[in-house]
C-alpha cells in the first residue's frame, strides 16, 4: 500500500478544499478514475487515481483543507495485494505508512549492492503536468555525469524539457525506455553520487552493530541531536514550487534569525523570482535552527531553505514518524526486502534495455519522430524568441539534428551581417557560442557590472518580445481636466473619512472600463501566430507602480463591476504592497489593458510599449495649466493633460483607436456622464 500524494494543481497553489469524495473506503478503483473533487481559488479540479487498486483510507472529510504534497488517500495495488508479504508487525506497518517519503528516499539502498545508489525523482515540470514522454536519454548506464548535466529530454503537452542531474555521479539504471511515459514524482533513473563512497562505508557500519545501534544511527540520520531530542526534531524546510517554470529565486530578506521562535504560517523569508516577490511561510511552529542562504543568494526550488527545530506533541509525532521511516528503511536495506521494493515489484515497471556499448561512437537510439516538432531545449527556444528567429528554418548542428544555442546565435549574426559589414567598429565585439562579450573601451574611471535578474530581467524580456512581435502605432491627444479636478476635490473628504486617498487614477480606470464596453476589441488579445483573437468580458486594468524592486504593473480585476470607491480601495492596497515589494502574484497576472502614469513623476509625453499580450496601453502626462482660446478668440487658462495611446496595429486600426479615445476622454472632461453607467 502507498499514500497518494496530492500533486501540484496550479501555479502558487499550496492547499485546496476537499469538495467531494467520488469513492469510499474499500472501493476498488481503476487507473485514472476520478477519486476526489477539490476546489482551489482558481478552479474545481478532479484528482485521478495513479493506478488500479483498493482505497483503504481517506485522509480528509468533505469540507477539509488538503495540503499540496501531503497524503490525500491510501491505495493498495490490487495486482500485488495477494502475493505481497505481510508486514513483520503492526508497528512496522505504521512506520511505513507514516513516512512514505523517507522510505522512498531509502529505496535504492539494497543489501546486495556494493555501493549505495539513489533514485532521481522526476520533479514538477509545469503547472498541472503529471506525466511526460521520454524522448531521448542523453546519458547511458555506467556513464559518469556532472552536476546539472542534461540527462534526459522529455516532452510534455506544453514544451520539450531537458532534465539535469542534481549531483555528480555514475548512472546505474535508466528506468524508462525511449518513447515511454514517465510519471512526475516517480523515479526516472538511479545513480551513485560521487560522495556516496563515504556514505556507503557508513551504511556498512550501520549494518554491523546491533538493532539498538541501528536505531541510534537512524535517529542521527534525521538530524535529531542527542541534546535536542527532548525538545523536538530538526527538520529541513524544502523550498516549494513558487510558479510555473521557476527553478530558483533570490533571497531578498530574512524575516527571522537563527534561534527565533516562529509560529505556523508565519512569513519566514521574502524571495524574488522573475515574476514577483513572494513570502514563504513556515509549515510548523518551532525554533529556527539554521538559515541555509544569506540575503542576495540564489536558492533552488526543491532544496532546503532553512532548518527548524519543531517542538510539541505534533513534533513528537513527526519525529516518531520520520525516525520510524528511517529505521524501516535501514531494516529494509539490511534484509533486502524493503517496502519500496514491494512497491516496485507490484508495479512491474519496464526498464530501459540499454547497454553502454550502444552509446559509443555515435550509436544511439534513433530519435522519436514527431511531426512538426523541432529538437531544441527550452533555453534555445527562449534565445530564438529573443532574436525573432523561426526554429523550423534552423539547421541544427547537434546530435540527431538538435538545434543548439550556437546555431541560433550564428543565424542571427548572419541575418545582420549585411548591415554589419559597413561598420568597422563591429570588429570590437566578439561573439561566441555561449553569448556575446563586448570589449570594454579604455576609460580612466571604474566599471561596475551587475547581473540583470528578477523583475528587471523579466521586464527586459517582456519589452523585447513586445517590440519585436507587435506592430505599434500611437495616437496622442489632450484632456481638459478642470471638471474632473473639481469633482475630485468635492469627493476627497468622503473618501478620506474612509481612510482612502482619492487620486485621479480611479477615475481614469473607471472611464476606461466604460469605454471598453463599447469597443471590446481594445480589450482583446491576439495569439502568437495571429490566428485567433480572444475577447475578454472582464476589464482587468493594469497600472504602473514604481516599487523598490523595479517597475510593476499590477491590475485590478473585473473593473466593470466595481464602483469608484471599490477601485480606489483596491488600488491603495495594491500600491502599498507593491512599494513594499510584497505584492501578491495574482495581481500581476491576467491583465487585459494597462495605464502608465508618467505624469506622477513629472513626464509630459511618452510612447508607451504594449504590455504583451495586451492590445493597447495609454501613457498619462502631468497636468499643466496652459493658455487656450475660446470660440471668440479670447485667451483663457485650462488644466491640460497629454495622453498617448499605443495599439496593436494587427487588430486595431487608427479610426477605432481615435473613436475609443474620444469616448474615454468624454467621461473625463464631463465626469457626470459616468453616473448613468454606475451599477
Describe this structure in words.
The chain has 3 domains: 1-84, RNA polymerase II/Efflux pump adaptor protein, barrel-sandwich hybrid domain (OB fold (Dihydrolipoamide Acetyltransferase, E2P), Beta Barrel), CATH 2.40.50; 96-232 and 312-366, Beta Barrel (OB fold (Dihydrolipoamide Acetyltransferase, E2P)), CATH 2.40.50; 471-677, Chloramphenicol Acetyltransferase (2-Layer Sandwich), CATH 3.30.559. Helix content is 26%, strand content 28%. It is built from 15 helices and 36 strands. The protein has a 6-stranded mixed β-sheet, covered by helices on one side. It has a 4-stranded antiparallel β-sheet with strand order 1-8-6-3. The longest helix has 23 residues, at 313-335. Mean pLDDT is 75; it is low at 80-114, 196-230, 313-371 and 422-440.
Shape: globular
The overall average pLDDT, rounded, is 75
Tell me roughly what share of residues is in helical segments. Answer: 25-40%
Runs in which pLDDT lies below 50 for 5 or more consecutive residues are: 80-114, 196-230, 313-371, 422-440
Per CATH, the class of the largest domain reads Alpha Beta
Radius of gyration: 30 Å
CATH superfamily of the largest domain: Chloramphenicol acetyltransferase-like domain
Strand order of the largest sheet: 27-36-35-34-30-33
Approximately what portion of the residues adopt beta-strand conformation?
25-35%
| Number of extended strands | 36
By CATH, the architecture of the largest domain is named 2-Layer Sandwich
Major pleated sheet: 6 strands, mixed
Our measurement of the CA-to-CA distance between the termini, rounded to an integer number of angstroms, reads: 57 Å
CATH topology of the largest domain: Chloramphenicol Acetyltransferase
Alpha plus pi helix count: 15
Amino acid at each position: 500500500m502507498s499514500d497518494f500524494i496530492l500533486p501540484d494543481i496550479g501555479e502558487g497553489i499550496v492547499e485546496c478544499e476537499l469538495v467531494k469524495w467520488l469513492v469510499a473506503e474499500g472501493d476498488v478503483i481503476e487507473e485514472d478514475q476520478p477519486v476526489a473533487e477539490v476546489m482551489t481559488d482558481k478552479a474545481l479540479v478532479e484528482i485521478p487515481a495513479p493506478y488500479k487498486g483498493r482505497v483503504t483510507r481517506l485522509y480528509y472529510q468533505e469540507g477539509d483543507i488538503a495540503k499540496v504534497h501531503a497524503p490525500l488517500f491510501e491505495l493498495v495495488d490490487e495486482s500485488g495485494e495477494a502475493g505481497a508479504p505481510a508486514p513483520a508487525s503492526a508497528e512496522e506497518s505504521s512506520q511505513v505508512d507514516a513516512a512514505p517519503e523517507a522510505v522512498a528516499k531509502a529505496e535504492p539502498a539494497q543489501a546486495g549492492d556494493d555501493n549505495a545508489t539513489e533514485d532521481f525523482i522526476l520533479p514538477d515540470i509545469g503547472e498541472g503536468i503529471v506525466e511526460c514522454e521520454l524522448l531521448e536519454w542523453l546519458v547511458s548506464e555506467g556513464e559518469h555525469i556532472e552536476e546539472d548535466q542534461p540527462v534526459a529530454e522529455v516532452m510534455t503537452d506544453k514544451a520539450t524539457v531537458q532534465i539535469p542531474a542534481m549531483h555528480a555521479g555514475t548512472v546505474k539504471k535508466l528506468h524508462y525506455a525511449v518513447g515511454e511515459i514517465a510519471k512526475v514524482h516517480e523515479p526516472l533513473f538511479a545513480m551513485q553520487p560521487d560522495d556516496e563512497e563515504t556514505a556507503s562505508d557508513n551504511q556498512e557500519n550501520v549494518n554491523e552493530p546491533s538493532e539498538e545501534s541501528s536505531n541510534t544511527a537512524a535517529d542521527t540520520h534525521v538530524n535529531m541531536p542527542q541534546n535536542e531530542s527532548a525538545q523536538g526534531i530538526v527538520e529541513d524546510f524544502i523550498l516549494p514550487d513558487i510558479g510555473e517554470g521557476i527553478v530558483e529565486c533570490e533571497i531578498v530578506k530574512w524575516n527571522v534569525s537563527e534561534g527565533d521562535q516562529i509560529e505556523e504560517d508565519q512569513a519566514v523569508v521574502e524571495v524574488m523570482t522573475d515574476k514577483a516577490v513572494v513570502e514563504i511561510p513556515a509549515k510548523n511552529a518551532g525554533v529556527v535552527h539554521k538559515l541555509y542562504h544569506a540575503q542576495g543568494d540564489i536558492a533552488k526550488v526543491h532544496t532546503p531553505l532553512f532548518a527548524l527545530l519543531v517542538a510539541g506533541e505534533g513534533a513528537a509525532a513527526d519525529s516518531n514518524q520520520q525516525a520510524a521511516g528511517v529505521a524501516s528503511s535501514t531494516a529494509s536495506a539490511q534484509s533486502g526486502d524493503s517496502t519500496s521494493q514491494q512497491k516496485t515489484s507490484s508495479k512491474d515497471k519496464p526498464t530501459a534495455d540499454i547497454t553502454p556499448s550502444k552509446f559509443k561512437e555515435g550509436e544511439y537510439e534513433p530519435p522519436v519522430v514527431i511531426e512538426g516538432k523541432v529538437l531544441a531545449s527550452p533555453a534555445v527556444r527562449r534565445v530564438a524568441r529573443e532574436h525573432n528567429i523561426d526554429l523550423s528554418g534552423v539547421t541544427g548542428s547537434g546530435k540527431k539534428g538538435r538545434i543548439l544555442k550556437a546555431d541560433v546565435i550564428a543565424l542571427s549574426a548572419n541575418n545582420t551581417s549585411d548591415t554589419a559589414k559597413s561598420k568597422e567598429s563591429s570588429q570590437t565585439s566578439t561573439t561566441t557560442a555561449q553569448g556575446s562579450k563586448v570589449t570594454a573601451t579604455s576609460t580612466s574611471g571604474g566599471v561596475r557590472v551587475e547581473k540583470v535578474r528578477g523583475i528587471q530581467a523579466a521586464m527586459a524580456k517582456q519589452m523585447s518580445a513586445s517590440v519585436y512581435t507587435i506592430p505599434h502605432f500611437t495616437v496622442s491627444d489632450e484632456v481638459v481636466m478642470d471638471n474632473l479636478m473639481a469633482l475630485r476635490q468635492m469627493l476627497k473628504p468622503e473618501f478620506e473619512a474612509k481612510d482612502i486617498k482619492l487620486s485621479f487614477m480611479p477615475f481614469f480606470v473607471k472611464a476606461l472600463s466604460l469605454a471598453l464596453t463599447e469597443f471590446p476589441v481594445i480589450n482583446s488579445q491576439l495569439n502568437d501566430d495571429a490566428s485567433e483573437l480572444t475577447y475578454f468580458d472582464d476589464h482587468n486594468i493594469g497600472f504602473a507602480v514604481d516599487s523598490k524592486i523595479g517597475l510593476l504593473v499590477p491590475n485590478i480585476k473585473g473593473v466593470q463591476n466595481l464602483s469608484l470607491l471599490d477601485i480606489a480601495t483596491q488600488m491603495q492596497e495594491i500600491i502599498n504592497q507593491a512599494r513594499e515589494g510584497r505584492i501578491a502574484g495574482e495581481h500581476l497576472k491576467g491583465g487585459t489593458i494597462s495605464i502608465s502614469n508618467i505624469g506622477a513623476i513629472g513626464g509630459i509625453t511618452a510612447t508607451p510599449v504594449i504590455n504583451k499580450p495586451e492590445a493597447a496601453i495609454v501613457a498619462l502626462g502631468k497636468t499643466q495649466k496652459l493658455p487656450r482660446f475660446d470660440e471668440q478668440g479670447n485667451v483663457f487658462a485650462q488644466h491640460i493633460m497629454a495622453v498617448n495611446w499605443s495599439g496593436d496595429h494587427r487588430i486595431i486600426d487608427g479610426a477605432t483607436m481615435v473613436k475609443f479615445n474620444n469616448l474615454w476622454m468624454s467621461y473625463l472632461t464631463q465626469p457626470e456622464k459616468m453616473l448613468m453607467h454606475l451599477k
